[in-house]
Amino acid sequence: MEQKKFILGMGMAKSGTTWLHNYLCSRPDYIMGPNKEMHTFIQPERGSMISALFHIPWEKYSGREWLHREIIKDRFRVNHTRYFDYFAKIMDENGAGASGDLSPSNQHLSIELLRNIKREFESRGIKVVPVFLMRDPVDRLHSLVRYRKRMRAHKKFLAPETEAESVRFLTRLHFDSASHAPATLYALNTVFPGQAVTMMYETMFDQTRINSLMDQIGLPHKLADFQPVNATEKEESLSEDIALTAALTYAGTYRAANNLFGFDTVQAHWPYAALANEKS
Question: Would you state the pLDDT for residue 58?
Fold first, then answer.
């Protein structure tokens, strides 16, 4: 009997995680949890907050879908054992070969947490397969700005009026942990040497690439629907000075990508890579 897999999505946000989630959910051998993004290990403080509000069995809220999901997620944050038991149970009950948690915030998981996740799932006979999707960090930040404007969240996150100025503003804040990709790759190589799956967002929307991804995960091939998800048109381009400032802020990510995918590949597919390389 083939070993079950747990796909641990490591991000990054706006790098194809929602598309990958939808593709996996379209497969008969995959069962999803309550949400695409569980945030079990990164937002433990939310657990105690929701628990304080609801001291009743979560099953009572099964008809209220959103609240039902949130309470389940809350229970996982309060007690991580429930998280591991839950995914093992739904795979067994549904005869699924795989499940997963594609929270982009997983890229912030420490080496200690990753080791614990690996150990807990292995004790239940499940192999953890980390998947880290990477995108040109400046282009990704610009995409995030457009997405948050579209979702009407810009008043909370964005001070300036224009997309370009928003990118400059968030770059100054070192938004979304500018140097985090190298730390994520280091943690993955430490805990999952030679086992973590990495892919460039810019090249992933191709059947051959997806087949290769499934080979690395250990799942059969399945035709993919390459319709874009959460895509937004660029209303304006970034000026050279804003793009340069952002590229230099994320220089560590560009260097890590050069080492991982090869300098020529990164130059060919990441639109702002040349700026970082010129000045670094």
Answer: 45
